[in-house]
Design goal:
The complex is a heterotrimer of chains A (281), B (301) and C (342). By secondary structure, chain A is mainly alpha-helical. Chain A has a single domain, classed as MetI-like (MetI-like fold, Orthogonal Bundle). Helix content of chain A is 77%, strand content 0%. The longest helix of chain A has 34 residues. The N terminus of chain A is likely disordered. A two-stranded antiparallel ribbon of chain B has the order 1-2. Chain B has a two-stranded antiparallel ribbon with strand order 3-4. In chain B, α2 packs across α13 and α12 runs antiparallel to α13. Chain B is globular and about 75 Å long. By secondary structure, chain C is α/β, with parallel strands linked by helices. Chain C folds into two domains: 161 residues, Periplasmic binding protein-like II (D-Maltodextrin-Binding Protein, domain 2, 3-Layer(aba) Sandwich); 152 residues, Periplasmic binding protein-like II (D-Maltodextrin-Binding Protein, domain 2). Chain C contains 13 helices and twelve strands. In chain C, strands 5, 6, 7, 8, 9, 10 and 12 form a seven-stranded mixed beta sheet that branches. Chain C has a three-stranded parallel beta sheet with strand order 2-1-3. Chain C has a two-stranded antiparallel ribbon with strand order 4-11. In chain C, α2 links the parallel β1 and β2. The longest helix of chain C has 18 residues. Chain C starts with a helix and ends with a helix. In chain C, 53% of the residues are buried. The chains are: A mainly alpha (281), B mainly alpha (301), C alpha/beta (342). At the A-B interface, α2, α4, α5, α6 and α7 of A face α1, α3, α4, α5 and α7 of B.
Amino acid sequence: MSAQMQKSSSSRAAKKILPVGHYRGLGGWTVFFFIFLYLPIVVLIFYSFNSNRMVMNWGGFGFEWYLKAFQNEDIQKAVWNSLIVATVATIFATAIATIGALVLARGGNFRGKTVSLGLITLPLMVPEIVTAVAVLIFFSAIGMNWGLVNVIIAHITFCIPFAFMPIRARLEGMDTSLEQAARDLYASEWETFRYVTVPLLMPGIVAGAMLAFVISMDDFIITLMVGGAGSTTLPVYIYSMIRRGLTPEINAVSTVLLLVSIGIVTAYWIVSKKSQTDTVH
Amino acid sequence: MSDWLPRSAAGRRWLGLAPSYFVIGIFMLVPMIIMGVFSFLEPNPYGGVKPVGSLAAYVKLFFEYDLEDQLVFNPGYINIIFRSFQLSFAATLLCLIFGFPVAYYITLQPENRRNFYIYLVTIPFWTNLLIRTFAWIIILGRGGVIETPLLAAGIIEDSLRMMYTDGAIAIGLTYSYLPLMVLPIYASLEKLDFRLLEAASDLYANRLEVMTRVVIPLCKPGIIAGCLLVFIPCLGAFIAPNLLGGGKKLMLGSLVQFQFASARNWPFGAALSMLLLSAVVIMLIFYARAAKKRTVMEGDG
Amino acid sequence: MKRVLTIFAAAAAMLTVGLAKAEGELFIYNWTEYTPPELIAKFEKESGIKVSVDTYDSNETLLAKLQAGATGYDIVVPSQNFVPILVKEGLIQKVGVHSLPNYKNLEARWKKPDWDPEQEYTGPWQWGTTSFSYNSELYSGKGASLKEFFEPSDQVKGRLSVFQTPDEVVSLANIYLGVPFCSEDAKQMKKIQDMLVHQKEYVVAYNSETMSDMLASGEAMMTNHWSGFSRLGRLTGAPIVYAYPKEGVVGWYDSMVVPTSAKNVENAKKFMNFMMDPVNMAMLTENQGYGDAVKGTAAYYSDELKSAPEINPPADLKVFFAPTCSPKAQSLIDKVWTKVMQ
């Protein structure tokens, strides 16, 4: 073994001192990537302070759009609706996706596995406008007109595959030895599930939930068509604004939402770090 | 507590899958079937459908009645579909080129920093897609964020005219779905055992070979998942093509939307969607077959 | 398990809140930013009715939604050429606008229009014109003729923006080429098609959203535009001039109608009556910058609005209101547009 190590270290010394698996320029590429990713965000925030009504032409610095946004009841209601829909839809979609993923990742190769997989990912494959009109027709055909609940149901439906994928990915990589050990130590199925499986799965569930939440918050075409009176969400409001002209009010609202979400995620991160250091490994 | 769970494995399976089947079956599958039926009906002149069977929608994909009422081959819609596939493919490729190195870089970071990077990648996703696309108009447009400093520095003389081009659409599409490429690839790479790389290197593999013959094959599921997650929404997208492409060249998403809105030809819109759906299903079947073959060849793991 | 139950309880609570009927409610479904909050607040104060406003982006979305069965709206605001469609499809109901107390305030020329001959369905909202606007610092023409729009001069090459939806563009083409509206003659429509295909070479974008932005930044020298919207662009300081070509412009008239599925018909009528009061209508016009159909509103206009060229067209301006096209004519329009777009 030492001879091999000597050989590899000498051949490594001949090249640059990067360890195996590392490549030059990756860091730089990543920096460029993040610039590309954040440039529109920065522009968005910057223009929220634009005194000019036109979104695209700068007219001076000012907070007036934030004030206007706070006074705009329509926007507030839209944001509120968006949050309600996204929260409820995420909870249900993640729950449904979790048990679905458990079956599909662990059930072995049973008959109907491919069909089930196809069904769960079906919402991903259909263009949104088609889903939107189809679901609206369906709801009116069965006479279901429950306003925001219609929207929530539609959102649950298309959020399931988004929640499903990270959970399944996590399950497939999960080591079952801990669960087996728990069973060996006479833990019941339920106890194993609750105290071993779920915590191990948690990162996947959280990732799935976050993805579902974001997808739900962003959707507008399905919400636009399916929603009844009083169920305007923020993206629908923004989309309808396009024809009449976007104002920096929207930038202001988006900036606030962004800061709030960053705040929540950061808080969660800090809390989870704390609990990690608190638990004895 | 586990007594109320069914005893048999099959029973449990169906219990676990039942909610998914219920929700997606009723609220997705049934509406899709309705759509499929609609594609075989006649359009109501002011929107909606008449309960009269007709293949007109599918005929319209390839043929049209010209101004003398003769049936003539019409490549127009085929062009639009072809162009959409091209642009979606380009966007997916861009996402892959852009996203893979970054996913890989994040994997190389120490564990406690990785999550931070992942959060950084997903944060832009928290802002509304419409707004983010609008921001690109400000960036790429005349007198925008890119042009103004270049003009001021004298590096260019006239506007670069980046807006309202296919390139702008590609950038917009790439930007919209980039996190969806990075996350699955990262999820795959995260499980990578770096000792395999060391082993390969010890077996005289050079750096390129380590990447192409060890890393990439091992994270193939992630790469494919990422590509699908980007490609499929791109096909049906209409925001980026409309806002950034100036609507001069229709794409599939805008075409479908146009049918349900201005053109009021729901059966044709449904037929287009069925076409799109079939294309996606065919791709997925190929993928499933290829995946099955691989597991058979490689055994488990 | 407890968490799941609490969530169910919360969802059920939200459901009941949604279904509970308040005493006086009104659900308005209108174009975005077309319903000033001050106006709604005034109405709520005077009537005690609680108002909720949802928004849509186009007549087509409105039609698609109503047709696919969306309910819950008491007032919707279609353009004039959509009113006959909504009537024909049974989507809106008669509310006898002519017998409302404030009906007498309606200007004579807007009473009993072609699209509502008995004034049973519609109450006025705003009306305006569609034409083109240009950036006066970049464009040397004066917008005197539609020729500048459809057969542009070389300076406009690559700097022209046209609406994304066909109806108004084709209507302007009808006016310019002298082809009657809603023509069912394929040869005539071919003339329009050829002209639009030729125009495409000058077009940088087909866009119905960011016209003023494009003019202000110089991305476009000339764009399709609406009167009031163009004025708003001008008010931000950009040199945007709304053109009144000699051949004429397209007129449109948005009115309030009550869907058949409305639940608060009496409140809807109260709101329609409220809007036919000149004080309230002036508030709307001041906010939007279009024209209104109620007598006496000019007394309440601000000075800027009184002198705005966008709502004070030249006296000899020809305004053509597009009628509702037969299915055959509409399908010809769609064919032309698809050919242009390909």
